[in-house]
């Protein structure tokens, strides 16, 4: 089936002044645009529990942003920035962060023309002793490179990143990371390290707001999707359907699948990363139904969800996935997704409502919003621009209800 999406149809003028460069002093003080079946209104984010249907299940992405940017130097003194994207060897996130002595990562290299061969390094103190972290390139040159790290400190790679790395705030903020970003570019429920960008819709939540919503009868569930730098890749082709989607790794626990099934019809995805994780599950379930296995080692394809039968409902998919996990004795499933959610007839099977920030023009995330609200995305964004909403990662939020 041929697919065409004119990316020019998803462009809008975003003045630099509307991009929030820093977070508000209070997380939940952000504005909340409410889109409710065509009607558009405005509340405070702290009032989310007054707007959502009672008893809804909110699903968070509990990934944690790593300090992925390391500033290193060549022996000549040339400065080189190494931006760790995802582990290569060991390829598993848990093992990669626990590695001692050496590890290989897929990285983006800043000032790469200064580092064509040889090594870069950084000297540091750890446990009161001097140490060195050294890096060399082992893979072919390109946008992403395989970099081998070796270090002398008795520390894991995860501990080294915490000690030496910097938080990788989005490039469109046009500033260096500051101390405030170490805390505010993490959600309050972040637990599992692996992202190089925050699931920003969740940045508005506070422990007090979560407790208040629980007292109202709302439920909360968690998934984990490690956000990659590909989330910032612009759509360069005039036909967005030719844009190659990046791969992101996720996992979901059996208890979460059970909760999704018990709260069927009232699932609220907090952020587009939660949307992508939840909406990838029917593809795994369809693989089980047709082949007996989720084949989780193969990423959910960019268009795989579009090829599922229309009558394959989300609750059926969850039951298939849950039965498989119970029969196999699995407490969690790990997989990856390249799913691209667009207005080209995409059918949402799991997600009922969406909490999300305001996204860049001509982006795959804006395509996702359009897949959910249709052409009303432009009314929503015109309203936000006309009512002083702040945009992008540190900006205000929206609640989308069809």
Features:
402 residues; alpha/beta; QueA-like; 9-stranded mixed beta sheet; 6-stranded antiparallel beta sheet; 10 helices; 17 strands; 24% helix; 26% strand; globular
Calculate the mean pLDDT score and round it. 95
Strand order of the largest sheet: 2-1-17-16-14-3-12-13-15
Task: Label the overall shape.
Answer: globular
Rounded to an integer in angstroms, the radius of gyration calculated over CA atoms is 21 Å
Explain what the structure shows.
It is a single chain. The chain is of the alpha/beta class and 402 residues long. It has 2 domains: 279 residues, QueA-like; 97 residues, no CATH class. The strands form 3 sheets. A 9-stranded mixed sheet has the order 2-1-17-16-14-3-12-13-15. Strands 5-6-7-10-9-8 form a 6-stranded antiparallel sheet, covered by helices on one side. Helix 7 packs across helix 8. The longest helix has 20 residues. 42% of the residues are buried.
